[in-house]
What we know:
This protein is of the alpha/beta class. The chain has helices at 43-50, 73-77, 95-100, 104-107, 115-127, 143-156, 173-190, 201-207, 225-228, 233-238, 272-281, 295-303, 318-330, 347-354, 365-372, 384-391, and strands at residues 3-14, 17-23, 26-28, 32-36, 58-63, 66-67, 80-83, 161-165, 193-198, 210-215, 218-223, 243-246, 251-254, 262-265, 285-291, 306-310, 333-336, 359-361, 378-380. It has two domains: 3-230, P-loop containing nucleotide triphosphate hydrolases (Rossmann fold); 255-391, 3-Layer(aba) Sandwich (Rossmann fold), CATH 3.40.50.720. It contains 16 helices and 19 strands. The strands form four sheets. It has a six-stranded mixed sheet with strand order 7-8-9-4-10-11, with helices on both faces. Strand 8, helix 7 (173-190) and strand 9 (193-198) form a beta-alpha-beta unit. The longest helix is centred in the middle third of the chain and has 18 residues, at 173-190. The termini are far apart.
Amino acid sequence: xxxxxxxxxxxxxxxxxxxxxxVKINALKGQVICLIxxxxxxxxxxxxxxxxxxxxxNGTVYIGxxxxxxxxPGALAKQMAVVLTExxxxxxxxxxxxAAMGRTPYTGFFGKLTEDDHRIVSESMQTVGAMNLAxxxxxxxxxxEKQKVLIARALAQEPQLIVLDEPTSHLDIKxxxxxxxxxxxxxxxxxxxxxxxxxxVDIAVKSCQFVLLVKDxxxxxxxxxxxxxxxxxxxxxxxxxxxxxxxxxxxxEICNEKSPDVFVASGAGTGTPVFRLLSRMxxxxxxxxxxxxxxxxxxxxxxKLTIVSEECFEPVTDTNRAVAADYLNKTAFAIDTNxxxxxxxxxxxxxxxxxxxPVFSLRSPGEIERLYGNNLNxxxxxxxxxxxxxxxxxxxx
Length: 397
């Protein structure tokens, strides 16, 4: 596959002082490569060096087979577009006019746009879904709308490579997703190479083909997200205490290591919102019996809850049944999250049936009657939100 940009023996920094050493990047056509790491780690310094805006402390950046500093600015702008975090101060300028600035490398001294230039600008705005913004004043746009227009400006350069510094910063979730979908579409459909820095770890892991973890003056690790980002990686990268990144679900979970007050019978993701609710309320949680391949088991592990776990696709052992029963007897009350019932996960229901502890069930009244009969200890709860109201007055053990 075609090599678009690569480095050799590269150290980056300012005033001949190295900030990040041994930066190895070999970006291929159509790749989306992401730098993640804490503020001040040097991500922007790497990007500016790759873009030719900073001279390397040591080593070389090659675009194609040429040293980037040997390429004339006009020629470089036809190969690479850069979208930085600095605000663009353009008074009385429409969004279309800002996007049209991307044609500067092609328009000559007087900057007059040809019919072909206008076509390219319009197509660029259409590609990012910004044509409806064309006539509006750029400074009046929201941050998400501005980001679309700036990407359209980059596309109007017709580059093979786009470098972006925090393109989702300050955007709401809708615009973050839209921006990343645009970049992935450009990669997949046009074969553009995208190199960017992101703070949104979950988006980076789910959207990018290759990641570099930057911290303490070096690249901690790099590779495919599936190979590089483990459950402890993000906590180590950002020095996070009290939370853990779940690499299976791609979410950051707040840890709850309190001794169990509540027994939660769950499965298939039905327990996750309940775990989070109880943790916010200050309760300790024991999960009941969960198979190790269950979504709730992954989340509970990331939250550091007390877990009674069973091997994947195996019947529950007598030992685990006894351990779960012991936990249930020591907790103040139990919650049935309305998890789907199958051959191997009926044991939690059996435990709740035989318990004298109060049980709050998110199942329908008819299902409660079928499973629990006339057990007066079982209370119907219509939703997780209502659950908070019904247990808020209960004391922990």
